[in-house]
Predict the structure.
Amino acid sequence: MKKLICTLFLCVILAAPGLARERSIFGASRTVIGGFGGPVLKITDINGDIGALVGGRGGWILNHSLTLGAGGYLLASDLDLTPKVAPLDEVPIPEQLKFGYGGFEMGYVIRPKELVHFSFNTLLGAGNVRLENFEDNFFVVEPALNMEINVTPNMRLGMGLSYRLVNGVDDNVWVNDADLTNTVGVITLKFGKF
C-alpha cells in the first residue's frame, strides 16, 4: 500500500502543470526561473482583539509553480492588553503589545497561467513578542491557502487564509502561545516575473 501511495504521489508531482518539463527531440528543456516580491496585509485576532500585521514576502519561482523565499510581518495596530490574573493588591495597567515574526517560505502555485488560480505556502520561522515588562522569542509555523488573480502579466492579487501556530512564549499574566495562535486573513500583492 505504501508503494502505491508513493507511486501515485510521484505521478501527481510529475504531471502537475508548471513542474512538468517540456520534452523535445533536440536538446533538453530549461528550468524557468522567475521571481516576485510585494506587500502583505494580515488581519488576525490576538488575545481577543483584532490586529493588523503588515510586511512583505518575496522569492524565486521555479517552472512557474514552485516558490522559495522569505517573508516578515510586524503588528501595526495598537493592542492594549490587560493581565489574565490581576494582582490582588494592584490595579492592572494595560500594556501595549509589540509582535513580529518572519522566516523561510515555500509554496506551490496551481495552474499559474489561469486568470484565477490557487496557491499554498508555508512559513517556518521565528518571532518576538514584547510588552513593557516582558519579552520572549518563539517558533512559528504558518500554512496558507490563497486565491490569486492575474491582474497584469507582472502583478498578482492574492486573498486567502492562513493559520499561525506559535510555540515558545513563556506563560505569564499578559500573553502566551494560545493568544498568538489563530486564523489569519491575508491580502497579498505580488510583482515580478511569473
